[in-house]
Structures are given as structure tokens and as C-alpha cells.
């Protein structure tokens, strides 16, 4: 006996709730092939309601998130990925068509910043930035606002309704200006710059905390912030810990805590590395010391070239990295312990071109 074909009239009238339930039971590979069959399926799969309703009940999304919560290295189109859930490394290859959906020809590009499932690349040949969601295969090309393609401290910040791009640029003049791109209005705004935050530390990004971007200045060290709405700069009236040799900032994301990582020593040489937290009274409270053996290794890795040190937050971890060393030192906040991530087997121990790591936690419907 042959099974009768399902009446298209019945299938086409199925409520979205039943369709969601059926789709959520599909294997992951089949699910993402399904989105290309029709516009209705694609919009349904990537709708916030579908993701919200099935993120905990269905296996596909949980597996998907566990498989893709990783750190990403800016080297080539083949990305070494560390899966923090499974605790191992894997390689993922991305074609240029995945990154340059809005361009017809291949261009050189560099990964500059990441936030909430979005990446921001620079395209020097077209004086543009490319913001994209690799999972949803959506992207937007943003033209540079000034005459010459020169900028500092570019930072991508996700917001509930989109994202913002922050940078300093001198354009054709010698004075720096602050530029902020808002995806809600698809336009740039220009404000007065703040030269004291500029230094040789070109790895530093702004740290988004309480509606502002926070930066550290070169010696004498201080913390300054930029209000993304008003465009005003302010220097924090908080006393930093003494005998600092370098300082970096990290924000804990949803927990709303601001941390400071710094070397402590004398004559520009660190003897130890410490972690502080900004209290509600706006004081820096010491949280942890880096254990001695780990501290010796880390300081020998960066060889007291602290401009090579950068930090970021990733899923409950404060990651401390060095531009000339592929390993990542991290502090697990909930357990109050320090660890080194295992070495990536596909990477050399050292590299003249340097290593740059980014945090990536996917958001299927992060808008571009």
C-alpha cells in the first residue's frame, strides 16, 4: 500500500504553534536546510518567539548553543574555535561569501570587535565596516564617516534594539573626534574626542558598563568613560590601586560588574597580577591574586611588554591574553579559580603576526 500524500490545503492552514512544535523536533542539519525552502519557514525559525519558546524544551537549540559558544581567533578564513561547554578545540571554515554577503568581489578584511553574536570587520579597500551575524547570514556594510580610513579603539556594542559602533578618528585634521554609529537610525554622530586615552595599546576596546564605554588612560593611570547617548566624556573620581604597572578593564555583562586587572610592581616591572571589582561606593576592592606559578608564566610570556596584554569577558570567565602568545589565561568568577585553556593544536607556539582572540556567544536573531 502507498501512503496518501498530505493534502496541501490542510498543511498550508496549520497554525504557527503546531508548525513550531514540528520544526523543533527536526535534526539540526535538516532545520537549517529548511529555512531556504520558503520565506515563511525562515521567518518562523528565526523569530524571537520561536527561539524563546523552544530554547529550553527542544534539543536542537541547546545543542546548537553548546556547539557554538566559543572563542574565535582572527587569523585566516579557517577559525580555530574553543568550545567552552565541551572543553575542546575544533576548526571551522567560513567562505568569503559568508562574510561578504553584500559585496560582489573578495576583499581583504580584519576582525575588529564582537558583541552578542555580531562581528565587526574592517574593509580598507572600500573604507567601510562590515557588521554581520554569521549564523543568520545577515550583514550590513557601513561606510566610514571621515575622509581617510584611520581610526582607533573601535568597539562594537550590542543594544536591545540593535548595536552601536564607537571609534576615535582624526579624519583629515590633526584633532581626534568621537564617532558613534547607531543601527537604529543608520547614521553616524560626531562628538568631541578625548586624546588622553590614546596610547600604544591598540588592542584596547571600550568596556560597556551602565550605558557608557569605559577606558583606561596611559600613565598616570586613570579610568574615563564616554556616555553613548549624550556624547560626553568624564574622568572617574575613583582612586586606583597603588604601584600599578598596567591596567585593563572587563565588564561581566549581565551581572553588571566592572573589574580591573592590573600588574603590581615597581619601575615598570610587574611582580604580581591582581583583580579588583568596582564596589557600589565606587571603590576598587581587591578580589584575587594570580597564583605565583601562573603569574611567572604569564609575565614571562608577555616579557613585560604590557601593551600586548588585553582582556575580555566570556560566559562567566575573565580572559587575559597576550598578543604574542596563543594560550589564554582565564579566571572563573563563580568558582574563584584561575586556569590556562589547553593549547590549540593547530596553532604554532609563537607567531610574528600575533594572536587576537574574541568572545562569541551566538544570537540567532541579533539584528544587523
From TrEMBL:
Protein's recorded name: F-box domain-containing protein
Annotated F-box domain residues: 8-54
Origin: domain of life: Eukaryota
Amino acid at each position: 500500500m502507498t501512503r496518501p500524500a498530505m493534502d496541501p490545503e490542510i498543511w498550508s492552514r496549520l497554525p504557527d504553534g503546531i508548525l513550531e512544535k514540528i520544526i523543533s523536533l527536526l535534526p539540526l542539519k535538516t532545520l537549517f536546510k529548511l529555512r531556504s525552502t520558503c520565506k515563511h519557514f525562515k521567518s518562523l525559525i528565526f523569530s524571537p518567539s520561536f527561539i524563546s519558546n523552544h530554547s529550553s524544551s527542544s534539543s536542537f537549540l541547546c545543542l546548537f548553543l553548546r556547539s557554538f559558544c566559543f572563542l574565535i581567533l582572527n587569523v585566516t578564513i579557517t577559525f580555530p574555535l574553543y568550545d567552552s561547554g565541551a572543553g575542546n578545540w575544533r576548526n571551522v571554515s567560513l567562505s568569503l561569501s559568508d562574510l561578504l554577503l553584500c559585496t560582489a568581489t573578495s576583499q581583504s578584511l580584519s576582525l575588529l570587535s564582537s558583541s552578542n553574536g555580531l562581528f565587526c570587520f574592517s574593509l580598507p579597500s572600500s573604507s567601510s565596516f562590515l557588521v554581520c551575524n554569521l549564523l543568520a547570514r545577515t550583514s550590513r556594510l557601513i561606510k566610514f564617516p571621515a575622509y581617510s580610513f584611520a581610526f582607533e579603539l573601535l568597539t562594537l556594542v550590542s543594544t536591545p534594539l540593535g548595536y552601536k559602533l564607537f571609534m576615535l578618528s582624526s579624519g583629515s585634521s590633526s584633532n581626534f573626534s568621537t564617532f558613534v554609529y547607531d543601527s537604529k537610525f543608520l547614521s553616524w554622530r560626531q562628538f568631541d574626542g578625548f586624546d588622553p586615552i590614546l596610547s600604544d595599546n591598540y588592542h584596547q576596546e571600550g568596556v560597556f558598563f551602565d550605558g557608557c564605554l569605559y577606558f583606561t588612560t596611559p600613565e598616570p593611570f586613570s579610568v574615563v568613560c564616554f556616555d553613548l547617548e549624550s556624547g560626553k566624556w568624564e574622568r572617574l573620581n575613583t582612586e586606583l590601586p597603588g604601584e600599578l604597572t598596567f591596567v585593563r578593564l572587563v565588564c561581566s555583562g549581565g551581572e553588571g560588574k566592572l573589574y580591573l586587572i592590573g600588574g603590581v610592581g615597581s619601575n615598570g616591572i610587574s611582580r604580581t597580577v591582581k583583580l579588583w571589582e568596582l564596589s557600589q561606593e565606587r571603590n576598587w576592592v581587591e578580589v584575587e591574586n594570580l597564583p605565583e606559578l601562573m603569574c611567572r608564566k604569564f609575565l614571562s610570556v608577555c616579557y613585560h611588554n604590557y601593551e600586548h596584554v588585553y582582556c575580555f569577558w566570556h560566559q562567566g570567565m575573565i580572559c587575559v591574553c597576550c598578543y604574542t602568545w596563543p594560550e589564554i589565561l582565564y579566571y572563573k568568577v563563580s568558582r574563584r579559580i584561575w586556569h590556562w585553556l589547553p593549547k590549540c593544536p593547530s596553532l604554532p607556539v609563537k607567531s610574528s603576526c600575533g594572536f587576537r582572540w574574541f568572545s562569541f556567544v551566538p544570537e540567532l536573531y541579533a539584528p544587523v
